Amino acid sequence: MSHSEVFIIGAGPAGLTASYLLTKAGALTTVIEADPSYVGGISRTAHYKGYKFDIGGHRFFSKSKEVVDLWKEILPQDFIERPRLSRIYYDGKYYSYPLKAFEALTNLGVVESGLCVLSFLYKQAFPNEKPVTFHQWVSNQFGERLFSIFFKTYTEKVWGMSCDEISADWAAQRIKGLDLWSAMSNALRNSILPKGQKDGTTAHDGEVIKTLIESFQYPRKGPGMMWEAAAAKTLAQGGTIHMGTTLESLTHDKHLGVWTITARTADGECRVYTADHVISSAPVRELMAAITPEPISLPAAERLRYRDFLTVALMVDKPDLFPDNWIYIHEPSVKVGRIQNFRSWSPELIPDETSTCLGLEYFCFEGDGLWASSDDDLIQLAKTELARIGLARPQDITDGCVVRQKKAYPVYDDLYRFHVDTIREDIEANYPNLHLVGRNGMHKYNNQDHAMMTSMLTVKNIIAGEKLYDVWNVNEDAEYHEAGNSGSHEALQSVRMVPKRAGERS
User: Sign of torsion, CA 331 332 338 343?
Assistant: First the structure.
């Protein structure tokens, strides 16, 4: 049995951010990761016959100076700046994203465009006063008609459920600050201003909307470079990482304040560890099920849902099929939801100058028809759908592979917030040295930089020996989600704990 000051479950962005910072500070740290080969979680870089590709595309963009500085500290020499180019494919036509007003007008036609504007104006006059669903929130921002064209099909592909079942929290978190006026004014601004002044898209309050940034940083050989470097530096600083090792149980000694952790290696060996603190980026449903004795919030954890994801990577014998980094597929006649063009992310992801790799992304639930399909059937489906969209001919596709990703997205259904709040209250009351971080660890649809920030603040709390920052406020509202370029001070101030007055209850 070995003892650590901090035991970390998961070697994704949140887990490795914590391990790097803790070992840098001299804390004895142990990490377990279920994957036998890759660190980085959903932000890893997969390899196949010399091709490298993301599990989804992972932009490196943050308005928190502290996060950007940490990226550069971990991976100082290997970032390239990439132009952001993405489009929407709908009804046989392409629409630039962000919106270009005249292009959208031409593609939709005068009649349809007029109806969209009227629909928007109607919603401005008669909005849903307290939107609780994704449908209600987006129609308030764009009107019912644009919701149906540009949001409904794609969103229901991603989540596998009706937009009327998805919480408005997801829309508010992911596209806060963006509405029809913002998109249209940005299109006009970018057509008038000189190129050097087109460095961001603004909402009504002047804040840059992250959804519509025009360039981003990217590790030249994929996001896995960042997390492989973080893992290597964790080891060099005295930390331990056990790959191919899964969590079995967690037991908390309330008197000593110590955790006992049981884990199992890929060859079946059972190992036992103890730790003063546990940081978990594992899916919170799985984490709570591992705690013994059974926590009072386990029924809430068991009701949390996840959306799974698979990438069909196709190798195409042509180097320049289209310039986009990715294309959103809003076309209901195909199952594919998004297509990544990895040469446009970085030429170094492709092993030669004459081919490219496309990643066709399918959203599914573990065990459903798509998930259970054979790799050969999925590759054939991807070839067929790519040809139907008109992006590549089947005869130009030379090879393919499939990567499945469990629990890629925490589902924001109508009761998710109640369940998460129940779990949070249980942990704060009964397990003060258990720290949830990251996307799945907190059941919060974080971006990579927000997942990192949850760990950065958790490490500050652990080192200080007190709760200086409320990690749950990271990505909770627009003020932090779009924190200003003035740096980390403003971002951290928004999550700093406010000392209670004497006698005041939490």
Answer: negative
Tokens describing residue 298 = 């386990």
Query: In the structure, what pLDDT confidence band is assigned to residue 151 with cuts at 50, 70 and 90?
Result: confident
Q: β-strands 79-83, 326-329: how paired?
A: unpaired
> 47, exposed or middle or buried, with CB in 10 Å at 0-12, 13-18, 19+?
middle
Q: Which fold has domain 306-410?
A: Polyamine Oxidase; Chain A, domain 2 (3.90.660)
CB 84 within 8 A of CB 253: no
Cα–Cα distance between 476 and 478 in angstroms, integer? 7
pLDDT tens across 326-383, in order?
999 999 999 999 999 999 999 999 999 999 999 999 999 998 999 999 999 999 999 9
The DSSP secondary structure of 10-61, one letter per residue, reads --SHHHHHHHHHHHHTT--EEEEESSSS--SGGG-EEEETTEEEESS---B-
DSSP-H helix ranges across 164-206: 168-174, 180-192
Closest CA to 377 of 400, 359, 361: 400
pLDDT tens digits, residue range 275-323? 999 999 999 999 999 999 999 999 999 999 999 999 999 999 999 899 9
Digit-coded pLDDT (tens) for 104-120: 778 888 899 899 889 98
- Fold classification of 2-43+66-75+222-303+414-493 is FAD/NAD(P)-binding domain (3.50.50)
Neighbours of 504 (CB within 10 A): 7
Contact residues for 131 (Cβ-Cβ < 8 A; gap 6+): 137, 140, 168
Distance, CA of 435 to CA of 427 (rounded, Å): 8
The pLDDT assigned to 76 comes to: 95
Q: How far apart are CA 306 and CA 322, in angstroms?
A: 32
Which helix (H) or strand (E) element contains residue 468?
Answer: none
User: CB–CB of 186/45 below 8 Å?
Assistant: no
Reported as half-sphere exposure (CB side, CA atoms, 13 A), residue 444 has a value of 29
